[in-house]
Write a structure and sequence with these properties.
homodimer; Farnesyl Diphosphate Synthase; 73% helix
Chain lengths: 324, 324
């Protein structure tokens, strides 16, 4: 199966979407954020799951695009809440326009996402929208937890995993489940694909945390240590806080809230040194591996010929930048 | 038909709704805004339209409640955009908590509103959600137009009517249409009830504009002249601007943007005097009457026995505070 070809089909669908025209202030930001691109990983997962059951995915294109519109709605609103100036290297909607515009345009995007699901066959529509709504609420819960954690002193690893599960993973899981359901897959397959997606999502987010500290700067495309500089409670930081001795804890606490640009490099080095002492890199890699193995277990349990799983398996490996 | 009894049934349904529990920061604001009450006019219209076709409205209660949840979602987000400090005499969500909370809780409310529609029979679900989504997008368009008009110098009467149609009227129309569709009413009846609701909605909003200037202060419950003091482009103001001679126009422009509390009374008197000279009250009453007559025409066209229309007719008269 050719991912490039699926991507082309998907982009054609995304490019022909009509969100509305007037008032322009409402619809222009939607076209803007959707034009910023991105990996389109969620709708691609919808299509890949669908392809496992039927090569004809024509009926799945619009629901797949709906997931991408929903995802971009969450980005538009999250960017307001996080006061993010940039999205994919471009000004965020609330920066380019204003917060009110981003609120209202986002609202319409959520409505359009639902609307784009309405071509689904009547016998499947209720079930799909139930799962979509559950997922949508969970994504909001994840964003709320993320904001709560910023203000809290103590966050457990377990709470952190729950937060990234809700904020990031469940939408990946839903994407795969959606593709399976639309092609009439057995319930147990749809559920295993959902679990596969959830676990890949968690592994992917942990990997994101890891790369922020240990990634190749040129390859990663972000400033190394950005999470450390902004005192983000990542998996690495929370693990370090749990395991630090008094001296290491003191080092972490001493650097907390120090945002001076002059000492930025020193801060990253000091915290990374603590991580190194505590073997945080290895521990994080083990966790990533744990969730990735969980994902593979669920993919294995899906009742289709192994060759039909190859593309999705390959994509997961690619997302993890792994060979096997 | 007993409206009080329907209201009781409706309030029972609204009181048993479960929006979610954790994180509390996400769900508490939803319970808060829903507890502030209000006339619950939209879900009541759903039930009344449904009752025209079947006395058993059990299956309509949850979709009716969904419309109220949707309406309160729009209030929560509009209040952020309008920087409103109070809602029904209580602090708005973004004041009591903060803007981020109001954004995210509102998002979940929109999701829950859709979710509450999902019990609708499969053969009707797609159609209902199509109309609901169309209406939801229109309400956002109306809010955007309202915000645009604040910044614009010139707004035509026609544009104003379009704005209030989208922002306020279409949700009333949809409410009636929803009740009819759920009880298997003929398409033409559903459409006439929709038109009835839209027109009542426009008339109701124009009456709101009128009462702000010419209302009985004690009865109306708001400060008389509030729209004048905030330079709101109401139907009265836009009509006056269109018809004013040079001197009257100068009076209006002289007072514009003057927000000094000391001269508030003088401002209201001066603008009201221009309205009086131009016979704006009478003209507004004529417009209200025009839309109300349109509404009644559509109600008449509905193919049910006249006694089945009595309650809805009575409620419309009551909303207009009219005898016939």
């Amino acid at each position: 199966m050719d991912i490039t070809q699926l991507s082309t089909q998907l982009n054609q669908t995304l490019n022909t979407l009509r969100y509305g025209e007037q008032p322009a202030e409402l619809y222009e930001p939607i076209r803007y954020i959707m034009s910023l691109g991105g990996k389109r990983i969620r709708p691609l997962l919808v299509l890949l799951a669908a392809k496992m059951y039927d090569d004809d995915v024509e009926n799945v294109l619009l629901p797949a695009a709906a997931v991408e519109v929903f995802h971009n709605f969450t980005l538009m609103h999250d960017d307001i809440m996080d006061k993010a100036p940039l999205r994919r290297g471009n000004p965020t909607v609330h920066e380019k326009w204003d917060a009110n515009t981003a609120i209202l345009s986002g609202d319409v995007m959520l409505v359009r996402a639902y609307e784009m699901m309405l071509g689904i066959a009547p016998d499947k529509l209720g079930k799909v929208l139930q799962l979509f709504s559950k997922t949508a609420a969970e994504v909001c819960e994840g964003q709320q937890l993320d904001m709560n954690f910023e203000r809290r002193q103590q966050v457990s690893i377990e709470e952190y995993i729950q937060m990234i599960t809700l904020k990031t993973a469940v939408l990946l899981g839903f994407s795969l489940e959606l593709g399976a359901i639309l092609q009439g897959a057995p319930d147990s397959d749809a559920e295993h694909l959902k679990q596969f997606g959830d676990n890949v999502g968690i592994a992917f987010q942990l990997r994101d945390d890891l790369l922020d500290v240990y990634g190749d700067k040129d390859k990663f495309g972000k400033q190394v240590g950005g999470d450390i500089l902004s005192d983000k409670k990542t998996f690495l930081m929370l693990t370090a806080l749990e395991q630090a001795n008094n001296e290491q804890l003191q080092t972490i606490l001493d650097w907390r809230d120090k945002t001076d640009a002059d000492t930025a490099e020193e801060k990253v080095q000091a915290i990374t040194a603590v991580y190194d002492q505590l073997n945080i890199r290895k521990q994080t890699e083990q966790q990533i591996d744990y969730y990735f193995q969980q994902a593979l277990y669920h993919l294995e349990a899906v009742q289709v010929p192994i060759e039909r799983k190859a593309t999705i398996h390959g994509l997961a490996l690619q997302l993890m930048e792994r060979d096997s």
